[in-house]
Design a protein that fits this description.
There is one protein chain. With 355 residues, this protein is α/β, with parallel strands linked by helices. Helices cover 33% and strands 24% of the residues. The protein has helices spanning 4-17, 58-67, 90-95, 114-125, 176-187, 199-202, 217-224, 239-249, 263-275, 281-284, 300-315, 326-333; strands spanning 22-31, 41-45, 50-52, 82-86, 103-110, 129-135, 141-146, 153-154, 158-163, 167-172, 190-195, 211-213, 230-234, 256-259, 287-288, 338-340, 347-349. The longest helix has 16 residues, at 300-315.
Length: 355
């Protein structure tokens, strides 16, 4: 599944290239709780077809009724951009299924230019980031390639929104855990690549829409040129494969770099990367391990959920509370239990092995 913004823009460009009437709705402002963040987009065709979302569904229904079927005073008609606000009153918020106190404002653009949309989609397909600026009075659009994402700007004259290429996930190892994690990443909008030069693993790979590579991991990481929308995860338990990928990944801007393994194996990996590959403390501090959130996961699908949750938190810039990571959770769970000495009635600490 491709990035949601690219998916929306691609469908909108196709509709417009065929001469179909359509509008682009962008969330430009929110107050209180909101079901979708600022910058979220939705395309709506005159036939009632919808791609993307700006709420949980009720606002979409209202827009369809007013644009595709409306002929009354509240109908949405082609023309210059319009600002539309939902959830001003408690009754309206309840009607449209907005959270308590939630209000959002949309910019509606009618019949965006097909050629400009096509250019925007082409840039995104090429892995570029783009900035699109709309004149609120005239609907004139300016767009250009940009170097870094920027916050949405909404002022008296314009709305400017950034669109970036897909988030990418590179998994080292084509085992069962990779299958579950790749599947979860796909439906979260990541473009997923799995790298495993071991024939006995890679020949059985069966997850559709995932690119499979049999290159050596370090070669592939260099070829991918990881950026701030890339995460790289070692899942083989084989230092010859995981360490090579991690060595290159830790020198890149990737937003998440990690590897599966126990706390002991993680410590040994850090030692190897320092002593044999010359990585410094600043680079080693970026390595996540043991990876995942501490949810007591034991099976491959549960472990995949744990890892995916941590990746999404890093992607969304969420600082996790103390005790949430696998390392912190296992340290807390490893507090030595007490056993009763029957003869003395004393409590004797038991020594537990830490994996």
């Amino acid at each position: 599944m491709e990035n949601l913004d690219v998916h929306v823009l691609r469908h909108l460009a196709q509709w417009r290239s065929h001469g179909e009437r359509a509008l682009l709705a962008t969330v430009v402002r929110t107050w209180g709780s909101s079901p979708r963040p600022v910058g979220s987009i939705m395309a709506l065709g005159a036939s009632g077809a919808v791609v993307g979302s700006v709420s949980g569904g009720c606002i979409e229904d209202d827009l369809i009724a007013r644009y595709s079927h409306g002929d009354g005073a509240d109908a949405l008609r082609d023309g210059p951009p319009q600002l539309l606000r939902y959830g001003v009153s408690a009754d309206e918020a309840h009607r449209f299924g907005l959270p308590c106190g939630g209000t959002l404002e949309l910019l509606l653009e009618f019949n965006p230019d097909a050629a400009a949309l096509g250019q925007l989609v082409q840039w995104l397909d090429e892995g570029r980031m783009a900035r699109r600026t709309v004149d609120k009075a005239t609907g004139a659009v300016a767009q250009q390639v940009s170097d870094a994402p920027e916050m949405l700007v909404h002022d008296a004259q314009r709305v400017a929104n950034s669109f970036g290429p897909e988030y990418r996930m590179l998994l080292i190892g084509a085992g069962q855990l990779s299958e579950y994690l790749a599947t979860m990443a796909l439906f979260n909008g990541f473009a997923v690549t799995v790298c495993d030069p071991r024939e006995e693993y890679s020949r059985h790979w069966s997850v559709a829409s995932v690119q499979l590579s049999r290159e050596m991991p370090d070669d592939l990481v260099r070829a991918m040129r990881p950026d701030a929308r890339t995460c790289i995860i070692g899942l083989t338990h084989d230092p010859k494969l995981d360490d090579l990928a991690l060595m290159e990944a830790l020198e890149s801007p990737a937003f998440y770099v990690g590897a599966i393994g126990s706390r002991r194996n993680t410590a040994l990996r850090l030692q190897r990367l320092s002593e044999h590959f010359g990585l410094g403390q600043a680079q080693l501090a970026r390595l996540r391990g043991p990876i995942g959130l501490y949810i007591g996961s034991k099976t491959p699908p549960e472990i995949a959920v744990s890892i995916m949750a941590e990746v999404l938190a890093a992607k969304n810039g969420v600082a996790l509370p103390r005790g949430m990571t696998v390392e912190e959770g296992k340290l807390a769970a490893a507090e030595p239990p007490q056993a009763l000495d029957a003869a003395e009635g004393a409590l004797i600490p038991l020594v537990c092995g830490i994996g």
